[in-house]
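Re: your question from the hallway

Yes, I did run it. Sequences:
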Amino acid sequence: QVQLQESGPGLVKPSETLSLTCTVSGASISSYYWSWIRQPPGKGLEWIGYIYYTGSTNHNPSLKSRVTISVDTSKNQFSLRLSSVTAADTAVYYCASLDPNWYFDYWGQGTLVTVSS
Amino acid sequence: QSALTQPASVSGSPGQSITISCTGTSSDVGGYNYVSWYQQHPGKAPKLMIYDVSNRPSGVSNRFSGSKSGNTASLTISGLQAEDEADYYCSSYTSTGTVFGGGTKLTVL
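Structure:
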């Protein structure tokens, strides 16, 4: 059974960088695509981006160049960095596996990140 | 990358059937058979219910079915049960990645 677990600070100051890590168990990170999705409180889902184990990435154009997604195959982890955060970036952040047919089949439990001074 | 359009809410009584629509464009829903649906209960992570327009993952009840016509995809839940009360989101591949619908709150009366 594939399991994902997000970890990282729950509070980030405005203009700083949000950093989260997703640890994958039950599957090799080298066998899939991996993605980040977020959900502002009381709102809908927003795709952030994905990474393949080779390091190939793609991200939501609306987030422009603020997003960096990386992978550490030795730790079976992938990570998200979102720079220059504002209150609008406050959300529950989920990591998920992404099938090549563009559906998210396994999800982490999510972690709330609040942007506030 | 505009969000797909879903009704904000739908409701039905136990045993009835309901359908949730998901409208996009020829650049997303209408252009690819990569539409998926997710169920989300309060405080929980989304759960995959339908993929590739109409396929059900192992373990998902056959009361859930998906279809697509033109730029609109649909999720139908038959034989409504209390446990189906949740938020539902559609998602589609698009040339720049993937886009979600705004979500539909299903109330079982």
